[in-house]
Amino acid sequence: MAAEPGPAIAHREWVPVAPTWERDPDAKEPWRQVAGMPALALNLVEQEFVAPAAGRAACVLGVGDGMAAMALAALGASVTVADPSSSLLDMLMVRTRIVGVELSFVQADLWNLTTMRERSFELAYAAQAACRLADLNRFYVEAHRILALGGRLVVNEYHPVRRLWKQQPGHPQARYSYFDRRRRREDDTLLSSPGTPGAELGRYDFSWTVSDHFRALTAAGFRVTALEEVGDVRQKWEIPNLQGLPEQLVLAADRE
Q: How many domains does the chain have?
């Protein structure tokens, strides 16, 4: 069954990030509260973009901290989580049992979701996933394929302008050009065995520009419904003072 088209989205000048994004790093286990407080995981823009979640088949692309998947389930969506890491999926499975929400799990590379049927979801959500993806275009093509007609993809990324800076206190000093997409990781931990597809993703982080996301989405067949830049404060876990720069890039894209 085709999904209903998403609601029209109004432009806004500024909104804060979700409380979990700006929380004190010493806060203990906020995931235990997310089932009763979905706003801990989803900021106001994201809540608007995914609404109405109740009764919809949703796919969360990447485990992350697991809170967004549990928040969507708490909002009434039937949620499947896809991630290449069995350990992250196991971690989330344990947390869902503690919290009391139901999720389904699929172990798969995010750029190869062939184990999922075409047009099987009405909503897809991806947060902080692109930094491990060498092929952003293929990722969005796969997301488009699994969405039903009229389905919506919501993407949240740590804003690319905050990925440029040296990790040192004081006035920010650029470590990278905004246009350096591929950046070697400090550690060389591989996500998969050498010689297998996706092995290089453990060696590098990828910082795609705003226009990269827009072009890849439209090339995959999406209509980009909204592009929002959310938050502007310094986070406690950031070493340089990045106050005044946008914190998150949030996009909504529909399969027409």
A: 1
- The CATH number linked to 213 is 3.40.50.150
Residue 61 is encoded by which pair of tokens?
């692309």
Question: In the structure, how many helices (H) and strands (E) does the chain have?
Answer: 5, 9
Dist CA 256 CA 247 (whole Å): 29
What is the residue range of 120's domain?
30-255
Give just the sign of the alpha carbon dihedral 100, 106, 111, 115.
negative
pLDDT at residue 222 tops 80: yes
pLDDT per position as a tens digit, 145-197: 999 999 999 999 999 999 999 999 988 999 999 999 999 876 544 443 333 33
Label the pairing between strands 147-158 and 248-255.
antiparallel
The CA-atom distances, in angstroms, between 65 and each of 56, 115, 126, 168 are 22, 23, 12, 26
Provide, rounded to the nearest whole percent, the portion of the chain with pLDDT above 90. Answer: 71
Per-residue CA distances from 120 to 8, 139, 223, 240, 242 (Å): 23, 16, 19, 43, 40
Whether the model pTM is above 0.90: no
